[in-house]
Amino acid sequence: MNWLVPLVVLVPLIGAAAALILGKNPSAQRIVAIVSLLIVLGIGGTLLHLVDTQGPLAMEVGGWAAPFGIVLVVDRLAALMVIVSALVLLAVLVFSVGQGLADGDNETPVSIYYPTYLILATGVFNAFIAGDLFNLYVGFEILLVASFVLITLGGTEARIRAGTTYIVVSIVSSMLFLASIAMIYAAVGTVNIAQISIRMADIPIDVQVILHIMLLVAFGIKAAMFPLSFWLPDSYPTAPAPVTAVFAGLLTKVGVYAIIRTETIIFPGPELNIVLMVVALLTMVVGVLGAVAQADIKRLLSFTLVSHIGYMILGVSLGSALGTSAAIYYIVHHIVVQTTLFLGAGLIERAGGSTSITKLGGLLKSAPIVAVLFFIPALNLGGIPPFSGFIGKLALFQASAEQGSVLAYVLIGAGAMVSLLTLYALIRVWNMVFWRPARDVEGYESPLLDNVTEAPGGRTVQATRRLPRLMIGATAGMVVVSVALTVFAGPLFALSTRAGENLEGPSTYVNIVFPGTSESGGDDE
Amino acid sequence: MSVSIVMLAVMATLYACGVYLLLERSMTRVLLGFLLVGNATNLLILITAGKVGSAPIVADGVAPEDMTDPLPETLILTAIVITFGVSAFLMALIYRSWRLAHEDSVEDDADDIALRAGTSMVPSDGNEQDSSDTEFGTRGEAVISTARESRPRDDAAVSDAPSDDGGPR
C-alpha cells in the first residue's frame, strides 16, 4: 500500500492546478477543493489504519534506494497529523465557502483563494511525511509561500503591514533552516533523517549541540516558541477569519511536529531538555499574560495560541515516551479547538460586526447558536474537566511528575495557572460579548443597522441578519469533533501512546527507512 | 574536508551585509538583505561539498574520490528557485505597500503601541476590524480600485496610524 503515501501530497497539488485552471468558475473551484481534501481525508484514514495495524510505511520516490533518493515516511504520528489536518482544512474550507457565498462574491471572486489554499495543504502534508530534511524544507517553503499569499489576500493596507512582518520573519527562519541543513550535511554527509540519526551519534557533542540549537531556533520561529513568538499575534489577526483559523490550527503545529522529530530522532540526547523546559515555561506564561491584556478577540486568541504552544514544548522537553504521547494528544486537541475558536470569532464578527469585546454585547440573545459554538471550545481550551483540554493537560502533568525534577513541578504549577488564566481570558470574552446586555455597550448601534449602511451596495437586510448555514455548519462540525476527542479520548490516547512509544529512541524510525539494519556509519556517497 | 578560504570569506561577507540589511526598516533593503543572505546560504551549501573534483557520472574511469559531491549542487538549485520565487513575491509586496502608503518601511503594530502607551482601547480598530475588511472575495478585488482612487493620501497621517483604514470606505 506504499503507493498511497505520495497521494497525500499529489492530490491537493493536482487539485490546486485544476482549481487554477477553473479560475473563471468559482463553483467548480469549490467542488475541486472540497473533493481533493475529502480524498486526502480518506487516504489519511486508510493510512492511519494501515500504519496502526501493519506497521509504518516508507516510500522511496522514483524507486531510488533510501539514502540516495527522497524517502517519504508515514508512521503513526505522521498519519495522525495528516488526518487531523485534512479534517481541519476541510472544515475551514467549508466555512470560507459559506462566507464567500454570503458575501455574494459570485461575480468577482478572488480566483486564487482556492488554489492557494490547496497548495498550503500540499505543503502541510508534505512536511508531515517528509523523511528527508531537505524535503521537509521544501514542504515548509510550499506552505509558507502559500501562507504569504493568503495573509495578504486582497492587499489592504493593514494586511500588507501585518503580512510584511510575517513574511520577513518567515524567510529569515527558512534561511536559518537551510543553513542548518548545510551544516548538518557538512557534519554527517547526508540529508536523510534516518541516516542523520545514525551518523549523528559519532559527531562530537559540542558540534551536535550547535546543530541542534540551529534547528531548534529555525523550527522555534515557525512554532512560535517564546522569545521567537513576537510575530504571531501581530500578523495573524488581520487576515480573513478562515485564513487565521487554519494558520492558527496548523502552521505552528507543523513547527512543533518538526521539533518532535528533531528531539526524538535527530538529537535524541537530553542536552537541551532543560533549555526547552524553560522555554516552555516562558512561552506558556508570557503568552497567556498577553492574552489577558487584549481587547480584540482575534488577538486574544492569537496570544492563547502562543501560550498553548508551551504545553506541547513541555511534553517534548521531558524526553520520555509518556511526555511525547501527551504532547501528541495535546497537538491533536489544540489543532481542533484553536481552529474552532477562530471560526467562532469569525461568526462573532459576522453576527456583531466587530471583534473588539468593548464594542460587542448582547449576542447571546441575537445569536444564541454562536454563543454555544464559542462556549464549548472556550471551556475546552481552558481545560475544564470533561473536555479534551483537561485530559491533555492531565497527561502532560503526569508525564512531568514522572520526570520528577524541581523544574518539572514548577512547570506543572505554571501549567495549571496558565490554564486558569486562559479560562479567565476566554470567559471575559464570553461575558462581554454574549452575556452583557447590548444597551450596556457604550455607543452601541445595532450591528444590523451598521451593516446595512456600510454595505457597498446590494446587500439586503435579510442577508445580514441570518448567519450563513455553511459557516454555522462548519463550526458546529468542528465543535462536534472537539467533543468527540473527549468521548473517544481512550482510543485516541492509546493511539498517541503507541505513536509516542514509536518515537522513544530513534531506532524505530531508522528501521522504517532502512529495514532490518542498525547500520554502521557507512561511507560518504 | 578542505575548504577554500576565498569561498569562506565571500560567504562571511555576504552574511554580514545581508544581516545588516535585513535589520533595516526599509522593505527594499530587507529584500536586498534577503537576497544576500540567500546567496550566502547557497555558498555555504556549496562549501559543504568539500574538495573540488571532476564532474561525477559523465566521464568513465574517474575514481569516486576525485569527483565533486553532486548533492549540494542539486540542493542549491532548489534553494535558488525558492529564493527567486520569494523575492518576486516580496517585490510585489513592496510595490503594493508603496502604492497604498507611499512608503516601504516595516511598520510597528498599532495595538502594541497602544498597549505600551497604556491605552486599553485599541485605536482606530473600528475601521480595521469591521466586517468589510476581514471578509474576502469581492472586497479583495474592490479594494484595489477604491484604494487607488482614494490616494493620494496624507503621508504623515499614514505613518502615524499605520493600521487605520484597512479596507475600502
From TrEMBL, chain A:
One Pfam family hit: Proton_antipo_M
GO biological process: ATP synthesis coupled electron transport
InterPro entries reported for this sequence: CPA3_Na-H_Antiporter_D (IPR050586), NADH_UbQ_OxRdtase (IPR003918), ND/Mrp_TM (IPR001750)
Stretches assigned to coiled coil: none
Compartments (UniProt record): Cell membrane; Membrane
Record GO terms (molecular function): NADH dehydrogenase (ubiquinone) activity
UniProt KW keywords: Cell membrane, Membrane, Transmembrane, Transmembrane helix
GO cellular component, one term: plasma membrane
Transmembrane segments: 29-50, 57-74, 80-98, 110-130, 136-154, 166-189, 209-232, 239-260, 272-293, 300-321, 369-387, 407-427, 470-494
UniProt superkingdom: Bacteria
Membrane topology summary: Multi-pass membrane protein
Keyword Aminoacyl-tRNA synthetase: no
Domain annotation NADH:quinone oxidoreductase/Mrp antiporter transmembrane: ranges: 130-411
Family: Belongs to the CPA3 antiporters (TC 2.A.63) subunit D family.
Protein name: Multisubunit sodium/proton antiporter, MrpD subunit
Organism: Salinibacterium xinjiangense
Automatic annotation (TrEMBL), chain B:
Residue ranges, compositional bias (Low complexity): 158-169
InterPro entries named among the record's database cross-references: CPA3_antiporter_subunitC, NUOK/Mnh_C1-like
Segments of this protein annotated with the region Disordered: 119-169
Entry GO CC: plasma membrane
Cell compartment(s), UniProt: Cell membrane
Membrane topology category: Multi-pass membrane protein
Gene3D superfamilies: 1.10.287.3510
Domain of life, per lineage: Bacteria
Alphabetical keyword list: Cell membrane, Membrane, Transmembrane, Transmembrane helix
Stretches that traverse the bilayer: 6-23, 30-54, 74-95
A Pfam family recorded for this sequence: Oxidored_q2
NCBIfam families on file: PRK07946.1
Family recorded in the similarity comment: Belongs to the CPA3 antiporters (TC 2.A.63) subunit C family.
Designated name of the protein: Multisubunit sodium/proton antiporter, MrpC subunit
